[in-house]
Write a structure and sequence with these properties.
Blueprint: E1 9-13, E2 18-23, E3 31-32, E4 42-47, E5 50-52, E6 68-69, E7 94-97, H1 99-102, H2 108-112, H3 115-121, E8 125-128, E9 132-133, E10 146-150, H4 156-169, E11 173-178, E12 197-203, E13 206-209, H5 216-233, E14 238-241, H6 255-270, E15 275-278, E16 300-302, H7 304-315, H8 328-337, E17 344-346, E18 351-353, E19 367-369, H9 374-378, H10 392-404, E20 408-412, H11 432-447, H12 462-467, H13 478-496, E21 505-507, E22 512-515, E23 520-522
Parallel strand pairs: 7-8, 7-20, 8-11, 11-14, 14-15, 15-16, 16-19, 19-20
Antiparallel strand pairs: 1-2, 1-4, 2-3, 4-5, 4-6, 9-10, 12-13, 17-18, 21-22, 22-23
Helix pairs in contact: 5-6, 7-8, 10-13
């Protein structure tokens, strides 16, 4: 156990014995020793006489402020021995899923019951939003504090094993969204153990995770070890690294390079395909360029520029960052080149941004594109989906563009049937003062953009969470079933035309996109809002 701030470390079994850990020779700050902890035993970590939850526990059944429960992964019975994974390169399509709002019950076991829908839809990868334990019963997951523990309200570690095993049995790969750029504000007991964060750098959440300051070797080792544990013990097929642009790191060998290499070695050892994707707003293809070619060597990265371009095209919204994308030429440029801002002026940043993409070094499939994500929907004041902004036909048109481009598409849960439930920002912090600050901060943020405070949902209200839960009956409606059928048709087209993943989009400068696989997308605008005929040619 890493506890450089401690002089004495003990493991105290609830209603049982205590075991002292001794300083590990040659490793400053580390303690070790034999501990008799049968599977299912509850325990505390005692640091200099004070009891804390284990910040690296696999199971916190009563929440992040209570005793940990020892979970032995060897007790799990798996049936996926023949599974070797699947690559995004092979006509991959990601389905972003938040466990708590995917079903009425909000658990992994309940989500398992909907897997056949996803198989029939034609997606290949499920991307689970963060599972690391956080304070309360409900939340997006980005306030996790226990890096190893599966959120108790989702069902804990055994439920995750059942879910992944069932996915593999149906040919679905499972990616996990992991957050290494900050820890949540409630239930974070690391300060009693050691300096996991540093004030050397600042992030939107405060001090940065310590990736380059004194003691950062140990912090990196902990983060990488927890990551490999998710992949190894839960049989996960890859990761989505949250906001890697906030991993502030001045060391020559960056944390992302070190993590990527560790994952590649683990994948080889396990003889499985394991892929690492990243959310990055740098517009820098070096994130997914091979290490041999001077990049970080990750598998794929989110591409918000294409989201913004398609959002303007679909909705006509020009507020904020959408303004840079508000011409057919800008849309064509982004779809052809991967980024609109590839060294060009970004008005909402007030500076030039990004680098050009060299598609001779990176395939288009390495860029993950979308028309809806948890971020882009949930960070609107009232969490409107596309279904609240445009009609069903326009949503179908958006799906057509999204799924015929040579990039890797990602769907946000419920998008395929035009879900009418909003996706709003919700929390469940136990501390009333923290809850009040979160609510006031959220409303103040949108007040500066012209929203009345009373119109912004209270994150701490259970009603805000309940409004965000998918209503699966909508998928059975006439319009919902029609749209879902169209998504199935388009995903079958991708599967039957594998050349799409290796194609390159080409723009003619007037709003038309062609791909090397022979598909064309013509971008036109109809400002009158009346039916209009468009001439299509064979060439």
């Amino acid at each position: 156990m890493w506890a450089p701030l401690a002089t004495e470390v003990r493991i105290a079994v609830v209603d049982g014995d205590e075991f002292e850990l001794l300083a590990e020779p040659g490793r400053d700050g580390w303690f070790q020793g034999p501990v008799d902890l049968p599977h299912g035993s509850d325990y505390w970590v005692r640091i200099d006489g004070t009891s804390f939850p284990d910040p690296l526990a696999r199971w916190l059944p009563n929440g992040v402020h209570e005793a940990a429960r020892f979970w032995d992964h060897a007790t799990t019975v798996w049936t996926d021995q023949a599974w070797r994974g699947r690559s995004l390169r092979d006509a991959g399509c990601i389905y972003e899923l938040h466990v708590g709002t995917f079903t009425e019950h909000g658990t992994l076991d309940a989500a398992l019951e909907r897997l056949d829908w996803l198989v029939d839809l034609g997606v290949t990868h499920i991307e689970l939003m963060p599972l690391a334990a956080f304070d309360g019963e409900r939340g997006w997951g980005y306030d996790g504090v226990a890096l190893n523990a599966v959120q108790h309200s989702y069902g804990g570690p055994d439920a995750l094993c059942r879910f992944v095993d069932a996915c593999h049995g149906r040919g679905l790969a499972v990616l996990l969204d992991v957050v290494h750029n900050h820890l949540g504000p409630s239930g974070n007991y690391w300060d009693a153990f050691g300096p996991l964060s540093t004030e050397k750098h600042r992030t939107p959440w405060g001090g940065a995770i310590n990736l380059d300051d004194v003691g950062s070797d140990d912090v990196r080792a902990i983060l990488i070890d927890t990551t490999l544990g998710w992949l190894r013990d839960f049989h996960l097929d890859g990761l989505r690294m949250d906001a890697v642009h906030e991993l502030v790191d001045d060391r020559a060998l960056t944390y992302l390079e070190e993590l990527g290499e560790a994952v590649r070695l683990e994948a080889a050892r396990l003889d499985r395909i394991i892929e690492v994707t990243a959310e990055s707003d740098r517009n820098d293809a070096r994130t997914v360029t091979s290490v041999d070619d001077g990049g970080l060597g990750l598998t794929a990265q989110w591409d918000d520029d294409i989201h913004h371009a398609l959002h303007w095209l679909i909705t006509g919204e020009e507020v904020g960052y959408y303004g840079d994308f508000a011409t057919a030429q800008a849309v064509s440029y982004a779809l052809e080149r991967g980024f609109l801002h590839d060294g060009t002026w970004s008005s909402f940043r007030g500076r030039s941004h990004g680098r050009p993409v060299d598609f001779s070094l990176v395939g288009p499939w390495r860029f993950i594109i979308s028309v809806q994500t948890h971020d882009q929907v949930g960070n609107r004041a009232t969490g409107e989906r596309l279904s609240h902004l445009v009609d069903l036909d326009t949503q179908a048109a958006a799906a057509t563009i999204l799924l015929t481009l040579p990039y890797t598409p990602m769907l946000f849960m419920g998008q395929e049937w035009g879900a009418e439930t909003p996706w709003q920002f919700f929390t469940d912090f136990a501390d009333p003062e923290l809850g009040r600050l979160v609510t006031e901060g959220r409303r103040s943020e949108f007040d500066s953009h012209g929203w009345a405070a009373q119109d912004v949902p209270d994150p701490q209200s259970e009603g805000t969470f309940r409004r965000s839960v998918l209503q699966w009956s909508q998928a059975e409606s006439h319009g919902g079933s029609q749209l879902a059928d169209w998504y199935r048709t388009l995903l079958r087209l991708r599967r039957d035309n594998p050349g799409l993943a290796s194609a390159v989009a080409q723009a003619d400068g007037a709003g038309e996109i062609r791909t090397a696989a022979g598909l064309r997308v013509a971008i036109t605008t109809n400002e009158a809002g009346q039916p209009e005929s468009i001439m299509l040619t064979r060439d």
